[in-house]
Amino acid sequence: LGLSLDGLFAAAEQTDGSAAIVQRARGRPALELEGGIVWERLTAAPDRDADFAFVTYPPGADSGADDPPASHGGREYGYVIGGRLRIEVGEEVVELGPGDAVAFGSETPHRFRALGDEPVTAVWLNLRARV
Questions:
Q1: Taking the mean position of all CA atoms in its chain, how far away is CA 4?
Q2: Closest by Cα among 5, 117, 122 to 70
Q3: Most exposed: 24, 103, 107, 119, by fewest CB within 10 Å?
Q4: Residue 89, SS3?
């Protein structure tokens, strides 16, 4: 779509006119994707340089089972909190579990799939490419 994840979230509302620095757990903007995958923004306001999110993949959820792997500018960093996540990055396929982390260039085609009967929870940071 040519949009960042933040571009799909509604802008954060500031009632006191101050810059937002805290995103409370209650009321986080959330985006539900195909297959029940949920991205919750961890920043109080959109950030033009990055998408910082708490991500949940239900058991068996796939980031693009019927589509070609995603690719876009920037760099991705992920940390798995719970569950098992299969990641394809280019020709490399790895399985991550709790405490495992990954980092890769987002221009390399990539796809994610939750394995097993437990949901995958993770923290993800997508840095946007500078033009």
A1: 11
A2: 5
A3: 24
A4: strand
